[in-house]
Amino acid sequence: MITDIPLSQLRVFHAVARHLSYSRAAEELALSQPAVSRQISNLEGLLGLRLFDRRGRRVQLTDAGRSLYEYADQIVHLAGEARRAMDGLRNLERGQVRLGLAASAAGHALRSTLKQFGAFYPEIEVRLKVAPSRRIQQLLAEGALDLALAGPDVLPGLHIEFVLSDTLILVSASDHPWTTQPPPDYAALNRQILLWPPRGSGVREAAASFLHAHGLQPETIEVPDWSAIRNLAAAGTGLAFVPAAPAAPELETGRLVQYGPGWTFSFSRCLLSAKDRPLFPAALAFANFARKHETST
Q: According to its UniProt record, which protein family does this protein belong to (predicted)?
């Protein structure tokens, strides 16, 4: 008869199975490689099944290992959630918030809120993850994040805590011909190169809607990050729709030029949580703090 599987052995198995490497699992768990091997051997002895096949330096899961991994993945995840919940309940002054930011929002969105929250709750750590809006939402849905600030096209299963308004503006280099002779109409953009954020970006979706509404199809160049987009625009490579706040320093110095009201439009960002997963105390405290601060300013 198989006795209960120790959680410590299951954690080690889970790490080896994810990495398919004893050495990487040992590094992640801060254990020696012999200790990892011993834990796996003990677990295999307990179950009476081989979980891994080792062929030289390669490690592969057996059928039994693959089956166990499906359960171990859920158990390890739930154990982590339980630990964080108990930590939060023990003392709200301490804890951790895993916050995702859409790449276009990084560096300016929630900046004041984060600073003030840090001063009010100095022992609560806010861990930031920056990625395109769609990826941030996927991580939230998967349980890798507690909260996410992303674009308005929200994936199923996510809850909108509150909505913030941002502004998108069209910018170019200071020596672009449009700075001395403004475009006569929207169609002029079809003769320009537009620097385009990566797929999954909420700003890209908003800008695409603007182009579609005006029947525009300019040539686009996809650029991987917002800093590069602003740098390329300033160098004269093309025009770009960018969030207004992070572009402010370059507008003030004249490195970038903003075009008129007809090229400016609002864009919504949402603070999101998962519908089927209650917020831990620290994350709930942050959501309430951010809602009060952001919607009152």
A: Belongs to the LysR transcriptional regulatory family.
Mean pLDDT value of segment 56-70: 89
205: exposed, middle or buried (Cβ count in 10 Å: 0-12, 13-18, 19+):
middle
* pLDDT of 91: 57
Least confidently predicted of 103-112, 198-207, 278-287: 103-112
CA triplet 65, 70, 72: central angle to 5 degrees?
85
Q: Domain residue spans in the chain?
A: 7-89, 90-162+269-294, 165-266
Select from 24, 33, 20 the least CA-distant residue to 61: 20
How would you label 43-81 residue by residue, b for 16+ Cβ within 10 Å and e otherwise? bbeeeeeebbeeeeeebebeeebeebbeebeebbeeeee
Q: Report the CATH fold assignment for 90-162+269-294.
A: D-Maltodextrin-Binding Protein; domain 2 (3.40.190)
> If you classify domain 165-266 with CATH, what class do you get?
alpha beta
Q: Is the pLDDT of residue 164 over 50?
A: yes
Nearest to 125 by CA among 99, 95, 87: 95
Task: Report in angstroms the alpha-carbon separations of 209 from 146, 187, 216, 244, 266.
Answer: 29, 15, 10, 18, 12
Domains 7-89 and 165-266 share a fold: no
Triad 93, 94, 96: Cα angle to 5°: 130
Q: Does domain 7-89 have CATH number 1.10.10.10?
A: yes
pTM for the model stands at: 0.62
